[in-house]
Design the sequence.
């Protein structure tokens, strides 16, 4: 069952490419500790399909720093200092900002040319859906769906977006028609008819456009047999 913290967390919850232990924004989030653990779990889950060595290294280093800081003994209380009444020369104020000696880079996944082309096509019809597609691609979730769904595993089982978690659950159980997905979103997430309907449109557009699903003769969205066969990504991308 989804915890209260996860339900109240922002949409980036558990996204390893977004979470940062050193970020002031992340530190202010109520899901900070839970998000840290979930990010590591997600990285471990996809490391066999996607090269996430850089992100893992970054998170492991941050966790090590945090453990070292927590284990460091508190400084002993110092004795009161004697105050000198002799005037001491004070340093001149710094008038120029000090340049940073190190730089920080956000780690993201490179987008495949085929996926970029699909995102561009989606953007012509719906920019919101295209933005969601881009975020999924950068987080490695598109390839995760292609790799895990044929094995009956839900790549969103531990993290959002929640509407895709529901959709992928239904895909691994045989697929769905639009009305079934909307009803399931309303039942499991407590969404209104309008909210659920809007997310059905986004989910079906994304899953179909990237070749994750296809429609059968009953207009049912089912797992693309290209994925269920030999899991050949190049064949899939050529097909879409």
Sequence:
């Amino acid at each position: 069952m989804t915890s209260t913290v996860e339900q109240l967390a922002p949409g980036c919850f558990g996204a390893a490419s977004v979470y940062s232990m050193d970020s002031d924004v992340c530190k202010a989030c109520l899901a900070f500790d839970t998000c840290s653990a979930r990010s590591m779990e997600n990285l471990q889950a996809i490391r066999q399909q996607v090269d996430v060595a850089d992100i893992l290294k970054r998170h492991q280093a941050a966790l090590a720093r945090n453990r070292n800081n927590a284990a460091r003994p508190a400084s002993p209380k110092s004795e009161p200092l004697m105050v000198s009444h002799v005037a001491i020369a004070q340093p001149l104020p710094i008038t120029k900002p000090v340049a940073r000696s190190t730089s920080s880079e956000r780690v993201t996944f490179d987008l495949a040319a085929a996926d970029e082309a699909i995102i561009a096509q989606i953007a012509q019809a719906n920019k919101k859906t295209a933005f969601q597609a881009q975020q999924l691609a950068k987080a490695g979730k598109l390839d995760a769906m292609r790799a895990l769904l044929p094995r009956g595993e839900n790549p969103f089982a531990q993290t959002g977006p929640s509407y895709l978690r529901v959709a992928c659950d239904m895909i691994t159980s045989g697929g769905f028609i639009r009305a079934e997905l909307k009803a399931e979103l309303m039942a499991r997430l407590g969404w209104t008819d309008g909210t659920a309907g809007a997310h059905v449109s986004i989910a079906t557009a994304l899953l179909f456009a990237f070749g994750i699903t296809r429609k059968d003769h009953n207009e049912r969205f089912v797992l693309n047999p290209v994925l269920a066969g030999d899991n050949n990504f190049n064949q899939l991308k050529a097909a879409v």
Observations:
- The chain has a mean pLDDT of 77.
- The first helix runs from residue 4 to 8.
